[in-house]
Design brief:
It contains 13 helices and 12 strands.
């Protein structure tokens, strides 16, 4: 919790006790109310007002009103009110401590990390989420890159795309994140030289900066990382000039229910396959069952195809005319292009590896390999990094690999753990959406393993044995050496 929040909480609890059980101490009550108002004003000036503390604010206001009540209520009602106020205060404390304002660890590479945002317009493709035929496909691209040490500015705030621009329901719940500083510096002067490019696609209804800690880690070690935001399929996209796009399901309960129904129907074949393969140990048999279920998921397969086209267009845009990016990011080494993504974005990575010869290697973070090329061979080095939720679901992809293939299973994790949420929102553990492994350990393992993979296949550093690990939380299967799946 913020410093003044703690003081305000303490003063509110003391005031609650005094008003509930020491009703005749009017001078003390008045003094406490004055102090609480003063602290609250300072809190508004120097700290962020966040929704997590709303119940404490409410209790403080009600207590202030009760001060002006001349008569003292019966003890039973005072005890009842005291207990109710304690529940409200405890609720605020719970949300404030499980969605905290914290200090993020610095990336460990030698470069300072720059960050910039660009929008890319594909005038040859219509935006299929709207009915306007003149609405063309516009994508947001957030880029992290190695920056020059001497030109550091004020650091970017965490997940800023969720609350920048005009206000809405998403920005209301995430606005407090502006108090968390990343180690990325907006529009930092880039270093000179040519660096490998890693493209990234977020998960469905996620956002470009969902893996900021990983992006900063890679950029600090000499990579350009470009994360692509897909309007209407990201939870929030700020394209600038007051053009903020939210998915339709945010606009009404009806659209929300329709969205939930769409997800349930699209996921039904996969959930059935997941239950079927639970008792099957043969990878080949598991792969056939999952592959058959994926082929039935037309809606998600079509989405992966669309995202693949988005990614190809962004890649072509980044490589086509280097002069438009000169001064914004370092030069891109066009011979060293990686693709990475999480969930649906991970499926997009696998799809792109099969259809685009410009890709050198790819990583899928916990994504089931949807798309339309599942039966095609995988001809570039590839890694699956899976949580407990995704382990064993891409065995068919392994069977089709003609080059180095790795599947890393990070034990005691859930799907959301493979994003920054593992650290930023410990509350997920209370709702069963996060595993037992601690967030900082997850980030440490992911950053190390993923950097080693890219160093080997994009930078050609002395080959390390990626089929082995020093992390006991990892289980690795690969088609290299003696560790074949």
């Amino acid at each position: 919790m913020q410093f003044l929040e703690l003081i305000l909480l303490f003063i509110t609890l003391v005031l609650l006790i005094v008003l509930s059980f020491f009703g005749k101490c009017r001078k003390i009550q008045k003094l406490l109310i004055q102090i609480s108002l003063g602290i609250f004003v300072l809190h508004m000036i120097f700290e962020v007002i966040r929704w997590q503390m709303a119940f404490v604010y409410l209790v403080m206001i009600v207590l202030g009103l009760f001060y002006f009540k001349k008569s003292i209520s019966y003890l039973f009602f005072r005890i009842l009110g005291f207990l109710f106020a304690m529940v409200l205060t405890g609720t605020s404390v719970f949300y404030a401590t499980t969605m905290p304002i914290l200090k993020l660890d610095e990336p460990r590479g030698k470069y300072v990390v720059g960050n910039t945002l660009v929008t890319v317009l594909d005038e040859n493709r219509s935006e299929y989420h709207t009915k306007d035929p003149n609405d063309k496909m516009e994508l947001l691209v957030e880029i992290w890159y190695p920056g020059r040490q001497g030109s550091v500015t004020k650091a970017k705030t965490l997940w800023s795309g969720l609350y920048s621009g005009r206000k809405d329901i998403i920005s209301f719940f995430t606005n407090y994140l502006q108090e968390i500083r990343t180690h990325s510096f907006p529009n930092l002067e880039p270093v000179k030289g040519s660096y490998p490019l890693i493209l990234f696609n977020h998960g469905l209804q996620m956002f470009t900066s969902q893996n900021t800690l990983l992006m900063e880690h890679l950029a600090s070690h000499g990579y350009i990382v470009a994360s692509i935001g897909h309007p209407y399929e990201s939870i929030r996209i700020d394209l600038g000039q007051d053009n903020v796009i939210l998915p339709e399901f945010v606009s009404s309960f009806e659209k929300f229910n329709e969205g939930m129904q769409w997800i349930a129907e699209a996921s039904e074949p996969i959930e059935e396959a997941r239950k079927t393969i639970a008792s099957i140990t043969d990878p080949e048999e598991r792969g056939k069952i999952v592959l058959a279920s994926i082929e039935k998921a037309d809606a998600i397969n079509n989405m992966v195809v669309a995202w693949t086209k988005d990614t190809q267009y962004v890649l072509s845009w980044l490589l086509s005319d280097p002069s438009k990016l000169r001064g914004l990011i370092p030069d891109i080494n066009a011979a060293k292009i990686g693709i990475m993504g999480m969930s649906i974005g991970g499926a997009t990575a696998g799809e792109l590896c099969k259809v685009d010869h410009r890709i050198t290697a790819g990583i899928n973070l916990d994504g089931l390999q949807y798309g339309i090329t599942q039966k095609d061979s995988l001809n570039v080095p590839f890694m699956i990094f899976a949580s407990d939720d995704g382990t064993g679901m891409n065995d068919f992809l392994f069977m089709q690999s003609t080059t180095d293939y790795y599947e890393y299973h990070l034990n005691a994790t859930r799907h959301a753990d493979l994003t920054d949420m593992a650290i930023i929102w410990p509350i997920l553990k209370f709702y069963g959406q996060s595993g037992e492994l601690q967030g900082r350990r997850i980030v440490e393992i992911m950053n190390t393993v993923i950097l080693n993979f890219w160093d080997q296949y994009l930078k050609g550093k002395p080959e390390s044995d990626l089929s082995k690990t020093f992390f006991p939380e990892l289980t690795i299967h690969s088609n290299t050496g003696n560790s074949r799946l």
